[in-house]
Amino acid sequence: MERHRAFESCVWLALLLPVTLNAAKLEPTTTKAWEEYAAAATMGMEQRLNPGNSFLWVDEVPERLRKVRSGEIVVSSVGLQNPKRVPAGLIHDWLGAAFIAHFTISDVLAVVRDYARYKDLYRPTVMDSKVIASSEAKDRFSMLLNTKSSFLKTVLDTESEANYVHVDNQRAYSISRTTRIQEIEQYGGPDQRILNEGEGIGLIWRLLSITRYAERDGGVYIEFEVIGLSRDIPNSLRWLVEPIVRHASRRSLLTSLQRTESAVHARGESTAASYRESRARQDLPAAHSSR
Questions:
Q1: What is the pTM of this model?
Q2: Which of 11, 56, 110, 272 is most buried as measured by Cβ atoms within 10 A of its Cβ?
Q3: Residues of 82-94 as b/e, b for ≥16 C-beta within 10 angstroms?
Q4: What is the dihedral of CA 279, 284, 289, 291, to 10 degrees?
């Protein structure tokens, strides 16, 4: 899932000041640091499958599990330093967890993998969304991400690939990463222009998300870890900007989980209503024939 919506709106808040609006360029050293971090995060997910390790982040701390099981959405920074500085860039890493009672993994995945509806579920951050290709284990999709503000009029044109793994009947996980991000300057105006990859203001260079699903306790635990790469922030502004980034990141991930949970409930209600209507139509002829 492009659960990437949990990150799209956070970094640009840190870049609203005019002093930061000069063009940036994604450097090879920045890309290298990102690939190393992404590889380590992916390996960390795979290590959760090893005997003796916790599949879910919430299971690592009893109080964390208690909060989520009771209906609270818990969001946390990954690591003490967040964002993490890399050459000419910043890596943002956040993790959130929720429990959706009375539903199954299939119910949740039906919402998570409905990419065409992202533009409805996660508006205004997701302006448009489309399915490119879909199979049992892999999806490709595109999104237009809104980063417009009073200072900026930039939209991100993105494509992503999501890979799904069903560990067993009760557990699954997915790893989703952007395969293309291009900035569109002055979106919707006469001077609209799409830039080459790695060029522009550098609001978001790369995105990676790791999502875990576990069906137990009468519902589904869902965990989103969203990792993003952006341009660096000047030293003179870090004291002001980094708290804004952290607050916005936390809030964005919280909102993402809330909307996902609401969408699962709404789909369940719609499915139940359709079932009742279908049964009513099936019972109608029998009712008439008995008269």
A1: 0.84
A2: 11
A3: bbbebebbbbbbb
A4: 120
